[in-house]
Specification:
globular, 2 domains, mainly alpha, about 75% helix, two-stranded antiparallel sheet
Length: about 425
């Protein structure tokens, strides 16, 4: 009887007109296009409300539209990360070309930065994904994560140096000016403090080093996103290399659990995600590491020792699922507008520079993948979290990379790479530079 009903339903679906079958964001395409015309029309008429209403509306509309295009375009969907990369660089192109009105760019930029939408999103992912893990496997995986992280840094520097020697750029300059900023944890946590370290040890104004470091960082972020999509494809071709979102065998993640959604629990999840984020900020006043890292440690400790009631874990998990499924592409539009300088990326596109950046990102993949396998991690998940999430632009890059790899549940480990890994690279910069000069 069930099989007959299934056949009937399939027949009904096939008999629908194309505009009834095709859906974007689960909305029939003609309805979605109607909504898009209203939102985009309001943008060009400059009547979009400021703050969350106008920003989130246009980000969701453009995000779902670009995401659908990317996920349905040959080559792009197979090799380049699909909707994620189209959303980011499509938005960046709208800004670069001037197609997006300046007031909309400013509005989205403020919503992402001073409006803290990125942090709001990441707080939900960190809290929900950690609390959805098995406590024993979390304890084992967390302890082992340092080795692939260190492997990614060392091998990426080695690859950069070798590529630098081959093309005549030099081993030292390739390591200091290309590898370190790419592996440094992003702009705010990596390139900016690194420019201060370089200035203090080498002379020259920090702005001089920023102008050198930023193109490497931007191009490295592009390669990280592209390779994330390629690794996802490799996992489908060679299943033994991947855990399909699980870092190690038996690793339970929230994204793989069947959930019965409860609106009341989601509301509780919002509060706990935000409280944990604020707790990280408070403890950051006394502990000299990044508040994100503190938040991860705090939530992980509570999970490992099972100190939270079940309803808290369920609520955080449900809120995480809602945020990840509904706002990821919107966030990627914000990343493209506020954090992706397409002019900087294009300016760096010399063959020499591309080869050096490629060497760094490949080194991060190889180092993290091989050493991750040694400690029992799945090579692809290890390469993505301990490798590519070191080679991207911090928190924004983590979202883009995990989205392209279709592994958003790995956010806690991505954040460890971006925050603690970035601190490791800064420490190495202070130790290595005196040896070179």
């Amino acid at each position: 009887m069930g099989a007959e009903n299934l056949k009937v339903n399939e027949g009904i679906e096939q008999n629908k007109k194309w505009y009834q079958r095709i859906k974007i964001f689960n909305i029939p395409i003609l309805w979605f296009l109607t909504l898009s015309i209203i939102a985009i029309g309001a943008m060009y008429a400059e009547v979009l409300p400021g703050g969350i209403i106008g920003s989130l509306l246009i980000m969701m509309i453009l995000g779902e539209l670009f995401g659908w295009i990317g996920d349905n375009t040959p080559i792009v969907k197979t090799f380049l990360g699909g909707g994620a990369i189209v959303a980011i660089f499509g938005a960046a192109f709208l800004v670069y070309s001037g197609i997006m009105p300046g007031y909309t760019v400013t509005m989205i930029d403020e919503f992402m930065t001073s409006g803290e939408f990125l942090n709001f999103y990441i707080a939900a992912l960190i809290t929900g994904s950690i609390l959805g893990m098995n406590p024993q496997t979390l304890k084992v995986a967390g302890a082992r994560f340092a080795l692939p992280l260190l492997g990614a840094v060392i091998v990426s520097m080695l690859f950069a140096g070798i590529f630098g020697l081959i093309i005549g750029f030099g081993f030292r300059d390739a390591v200091l000016l290309i590898a370190m900023p790419i592996m440094g944890g992003g702009m705010g946590a990596g390139a900016v403090p690194m420019s201060q370290v370089y200035s203090e040890l080498l002379g020259n104004d920090p702005s001089y080093y920023i102008s050198i470091l930023v193109p490497a960082l931007a191009l490295g972020n592009v390669f990280a996103i592209v390779f994330a999509g390629l690794l996802d494809m490799l996992g489908k071709k060679v299943p033994k290399l991947t855990g399909n979102g699980q870092l190690m065998e038996g690793f339970e993640v929230a994204g793989n659990k069947k959930i019965t959604y409860d609106i009341k629990l989601m509301g509780i999840g919002v509060i706990f995600a935000l409280v944990f984020y604020v707790a990280g900020q408070i403890l950051g006043l006394f502990i000299p590491i990044h508040p994100y890292a503190i938040m991860i440690i705090l939530v992980a400790v509570l999970k490992i020792f099972e100190l939270l009631p079940t309803f808290v874990e369920e609520s955080a998990n449900q809120w995480y699922q809602f945020v990840a499924k509904n706002w990821t592409l919107a966030l990627l539009i914000g990343i493209g507008v506020a954090y992706t300088d397409l002019e900087t990326v294009l300016a760096a596109l010399s063959l020499e520079y591309i080869l050096l950046v490629l060497g760094v990102v490949l080194g991060a993949i190889v180092g993290a993948g091989l050493l991750g396998k040694l400690v029992g991690f799945k090579p692809i998940e290890s390469a993505i979290t301990a490798g590519l999430c070191m080679a991207n632009m911090g928190g924004t890059g983590d979202v883009a990379v995990l989205s392209a790899a279709k592994r958003m549940e790995l956010m806690p480990f991505a954040q460890i790479s971006s925050r603690l890994g970035g601190a490791l690279v800064l420490l190495l910069a202070g130790l290595i530079i005196p040896l070179f000069f």
